[in-house]
């Protein structure tokens, strides 16, 4: 009937609905608490606007006491939109509960996934544990009986080219335990990562793992370059058509909204790669093809001048495409880091310092402490690898073998973050032989990993002795 009033029960129901929606409306970021990480700002903003719109519709109905037609229309539309939001929130809760039931985390990679890398220089399989990082299942206890050491870094920390037992983290752990130090090194290295990602990984991992020591392994030269060129797309994200970009965006948002369910359905998690045992060579061949199809005229000339063997390895999927991508796009990658007075260099140092401070503060919050170590890049150690870089087309020279500019840049960033800094450069330059790295790939071979394990073991012993002298009560 026109002008009919709501009954007391209907008014009470509407009040409850308004109250629930209001709580959700003034807390639109609540959904991020049920997610692995914050959603894309655009999606979160859309949900917030929808929340606010529903609230506005239902509040307006309170002022339409004598217009039953408009009142019913607004209430029906408001309840329809609210039902969508309610379903969304229920799905989020179910996804969150499913993840708790599985007791898995995708800190970096998809849990229980594996990948095989086969080139002319190495053949290894990387297995991922249930927490989403490389290595066996960790013993995560926080009673202080074991020293947990969190290793942050890129592919050099991850152990590219080596089976896990041969990575420097595993070798150092074995060595320290043999010396009576009950320590567990947790390998949170991620290939291709930069200091921004180190901080992102730390934000996910430290609250869960609560390490006593966090070691940030900065890669000489390369980490500084990645910050300078942060806007440059990697090979895997070369230009695509609009439909491809839209599909990628939709898939990413689905994975962000429902990370645990998407891992089961799609075989891929938010931070991880596809949870499939696979040979990476076909993917490298595809990436090399993408690079070749998107070259500028200048880059084609650089490719033509490249060493024949290296070019053939690149096209056959036997060489990491990122090496050639950087050589074609940024041949000055290493030389531009030699000028510490350059504005971009100083800006990058400041930015790295900011990431280090964030990691330090997070480690302190969970009763641990952070330190910084520098991994020696072969461009500054190996004369043989300098020659390989020249064959790839990089602008390098023998003065790199004596230069300390790239080390000084990382030391400046560390000092600004008020963190201890340890460097392996002197140790690697003094090594009796030049075969510490894979000849073409440039990562640590077994000899290089063992040498860095010796270096890192001494660092950990020093930090361990310091923590024993004044160990705070652990957060449980």
Percentage of β-strand residues: 5-15%
Whole-number tally of structural domains: 2
Large-scale geometry: globular
Let me know the CATH homologous superfamily of the largest domain. Answer: SGNH hydrolase
Radius of gyration equals 27 Å
SS summary, helix count: 18
Mean pLDDT: 80
Task: Write up this protein.
The protein is an alpha/beta fold. It has 2 domains: 8-102; 114-469, SGNH hydrolase (Rossmann fold). It is built from 18 helices and 7 strands. Strands 4-3-5-6-7 form a 5-stranded parallel sheet, with helices on both faces. A two-stranded antiparallel ribbon has the order 1-2. Strand 1 (114-118) and strand 2 form a beta hairpin. Helix 5 (168-178) packs across helix 18 (446-469) and helix 14 (343-365) crosses helix 16 (405-416).
Brief digest:
The protein has two domains: about 10-100; about 115-470, SGNH hydrolase (Rossmann fold, 3-Layer(aba) Sandwich).
Keywords:
476 residues, 18 helices, alpha/beta, 5-stranded parallel β-sheet, two-stranded antiparallel ribbon, disordered C terminus, 9% strand, Rossmann fold
What is the topological layout?
Blueprint: H1 8-26, H2 41-61, H3 68-102, E1 114-118, E2 123-127, E3 147-153, H4 155-158, H5 168-178, E4 183-189, H6 195-209, E5 213-219, H7 222-228, H8 242-257, H9 259-266, H10 281-293, H11 297-305, H12 308-315, H13 321-329, H14 343-365, E6 369-375, H15 383-392, H16 405-416, E7 421-423, H17 425-429, H18 446-469
Parallel strand pairs: 3-4, 3-5, 5-6, 6-7
Antiparallel strand pairs: 1-2
